[in-house]
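Kindly go through one protein, given below as sequence and tokens. The question is how this chain folds according to its tokens.

***
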Amino acid sequence: MDFFCSLFLVPSRILNVLRKLLLFLALALVGGYLWYAHALSAIGDGETRKIVKIPKGASMQSIATQLKEEGVIRSARAFSLYVRLHGEDSSLQAGSFVLRLSQSVSEIVETLTTGASEEISLTIPEGYTVKDIDALVAGEGLAETGAILTCAQTCDFSSFEFLPPRTDMAKRGGKIEGYLYPDTYYVSPADFHPKFFLERLLTTFRHRVVEEKKAAIDGSDRSLHAIITMASLIEEETRKAGERPIVSGILWKRFDNGIGLGVDAAVRYILEKPSSAITLDDLEVDSPYNLRKYRGLPPGPIASPSLSSIEAALAPEESKYLYYLHGTDGVIRYAETNDEHNENKKKYLR
């Protein structure tokens, strides 16, 4: 009897061990599944985008590591496992891709295997120069530094008949400076080309200004180039849209009466000193952009003016003033005479 009982005790112990082993395996599988599912989920939400450049010849493992380092996936190991399980090892493509942080690994893999790339929004702020736009585009990884600037100076834009026949095209932003309409544009990193992008900005200018403001431009006794050049000065000399009509009136009055405009923003432009202090030596520079030395308008615009600055240049507000300045408190003050202007300097420039 004892012999037969002992035969049944051995399987019972083995069964307990097997039960524990199966429980462990089940927990491991559940834990592994939960980790894997979480690792494949989107790392964020919203529409935050990142441009990721996958180099030619990159291995699947190096791509996984790059995506993890750039913060678009949770785990390089989970990404690699997913790609292998779905047989996409050799399907990942090189190139520039726009990836949203709200994309899961499956969506990212689909983007990288199909070569499809979303468009991204690129906002050109009012008052930007060609050089500023060049830096913005380069900063987004859409083109190399200098690509936009070089194209502005050398590309053929003769199809845009409103551009002036400038003789100093090779300087700074070329003849398209000031005519690149500031707005938000949607671009595809994979298809980005400097000339095509600049043509889009010029086309928008044609539509929003040349065509929509045609009646006002035709009714003016000034050329489009003079209007846009003045508008760029107004853009740089004002801080609020409400200031622009009266500042426009002051500058046009000085221009029409042969009084020097004295706009230092033009000196800053030619010397490429957008924010640092202007020195006495700077004000001695022999350039038609030095409006302390030369009367009239500079050779061309010094920035891309906003629509409100263009409208102000087209419809200046008459006033008794000939001078203006912004105090250190940001408030603009006007003056009728040079003596009053100097008094304002003493009071409000500290």
User: Anything to note?
Assistant: The chain has 13 helices and six strands. Residues 69 and 76 are 9 Å apart (CA to CA).
